[in-house]
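User: Hi! Is it possible to get a structure for several chains at once, not just one? Here's what I have:
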Amino acid sequence: MKKALSGPKRGEPITLRTFTEPAAYLAPFMICLLIFTVYPFVNVILLSFREDYSLISGSYTGVGLGNYTQIFQDPHFINALKNTGMYVLMVVPVSTALSLLIATFLNSSIKLQGLFQTCYFLPMVTSITAVGLVWKWMFNYDYGLINYFFSLFGIAPVNWLNDPRYNLAALIIYGIWSMMPFTIILLLSGYQNINPQYYTAAKVDGAGASRIFFRITVPLLAPTLGLTMIINVISASKVFTELFPLFNGKPGSAYSLYTVVYYLFDMFYKQWQLGPAAASAVILFIIVLIFTLLQLRIQRKWKNY
Amino acid sequence: MKLAKKTLIYLVLTIGALMMVLPFFWMLVSSLKTAAEVNTTPPTFLPQTPVFENYVYAFAKAPFLTYFRNSVIVTVCCVVCTMFTTILAAFAFSRLKFPGRDVLFSLLLSMMMIPFEMLIITNYTTVMHMGLLDKLPALIVPFCASIFYTYILRNFFLAIPDSLYYSARVDGASNWRYLWRIMVPMAKPALVTIGLLNAIACWNSFLWTVVVTDSKEVRTLPFGLYAFMTSSGIRYERLMAAATIVVIPMILLFIFCRKSIVTGVSRGGLKG
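Assistant: Yes, the chains can be modeled jointly so their relative placement is included. Here is the combined structure:
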């Protein structure tokens, strides 16, 4: 209590007035937050335990784990977990590795910094739907740019979007491309946060370039790298919008490319099965929660640097 | 040795940059081709004679001007409302003192990890009860309070020295006056960054838009583009023209405000 009271009003008695002014300032923010974040969060958890819930009447037959057993027996949900896991496992490491290379080079004193940055960061601001449509066109079997490049190297054309075996690969390639800008920005600012005095000291001591890289750059960049990867794991776990332009709103050409968020959307918006939809939402939250806790741990450690 | 290294760096960076802009280049080029030229192998890298008929077709076939207007309305309203709630809340959390303030703030911070995708089910019902389904406000009201932006702005406010506050108070300025006359002008860079990030997110929002809107009159550009694809068939030269219409405003915004956007992203990503 005493700590919270420190400041200009220290020692003043707590009266109604202590709260009225802050409350007035906080009201618009808190009201919006309560209605659209706090209440739905609590509600979706409750919903996930209500069996045979009906949106119209608000009635349900019982409270239990029925929705969870249902989704875990649903092959589409298992498929969604597998695809999302595979997507995260491929997209995050590959895009991080490529971004690390680019960020390292961008960080060395080069000319045309502005032009390069514009090129590399552009995909970040553009709509997934619009750019996804361009990728759909580039993945086209007959006239797509990618199969054309393949043909230059004598590789047979791949039916990216209509052969279910290649659907996930197409999604992953697009995912790597669209994740890179954000990753490069974070790594670049990680580089710029490294105190230049370390490098000066190392050079004075006569350390070579590779020694400097592995003894100074790598350990000092490691927290940023770890943090970036976790943020990317969280955002990649929510892969969804990309499916709309690439597969006309279907989860892959043969309905084999469900993702966790797509399953949630499908259960809720197309099938109106609110219970299972809520259960899959809670599973999504648990996935995000685990990685956020990891992120917090790294951040706490990072403060020591 | 030094020259070889420099060459390598420029080579890798150039190839990478080309890969990143290739889809945008290909979008623009394809949109200027005729139907016959689009479906040729090998593809032509510049249109033989640029044609604008695909843009004419896109505008004639789908109300892209309405979509554009809707996107602008939603984005502007979203940014204005978010700014208002953010400025007031950030002020309360940085300048005003009240018991439990810091506890409340850490509680809010922990709520940042709730994914929005999780909330759509209940928010849909709420918006329905408000009678806003298939109306533009439905795309605005759920996004009027952002914990993340409040966090960024609060940190900025905290960095403004206390002495300014006390001298303003001695001069008889109220908290309200102090906030709008001194703090807000000083926090302009942070506000610009927040506004830009918010505008980009609003402009490109898709999942929620699909869930709560249906009719043509209230579609925003990304959803309008998707509807255009499903309704008028896969004709890539036309789709690319439509995609260009959607993407151009954000590209222009980015080219003019790159520094603020990049600062915002790195600040938000790492110190969040």
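The two ends of chain A are 32 Å apart (CA to CA). The mean pLDDT of chain A is 88.

User: Great, thank you!
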